[in-house]
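User: structure tokens for this one?
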Amino acid sequence: MTNNSRPRPGSDARRPLAVFDLDGTLADSAHRQRFLERRPRDWDAFFAAAPHDPPLAQGVALALEYAQECEVLYLTGRPERCRRDTETWIAAQGLPEGRIRMRRNDDRRPARRTKLEILRGLARDREIRVLVDDDELVCEDAERAGFTVVRARWAAASAALKVAQERDGRT
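Assistant:
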């Protein structure tokens, strides 16, 4: 994931961070799962469809709630090449402004490794109030590392996406 951990201009480094995943937490990616269920997986189509994700109301409400006391940071396994679409989607949903940490285009490590690495780096300088994520393996590892976790269980789980997150290192 790209290293963008310094507070953005205008942010208050004293405020704790609330870290939110996107796919399956704030964005309903179910409509594009079909691109991962075929062989070979069509990653270009999967990510190209992301701007059409409907928001997940429970996740959006939680982000807005945490934004009252925390700086929101978005931590996603989406590749860096999706940044513009992701920024546009976040703004269109009325989500809080926040930095977006994305996977390098060539990074294929499992989501639980990349996200935990980022969380530990952020925690060196900032309090992490909460991580909100739908990936059970990410949540388990973050809890073991001492982070407070809210498991986003409000979207339908996808076996294809779980494989993509863990084995393919794609999202």
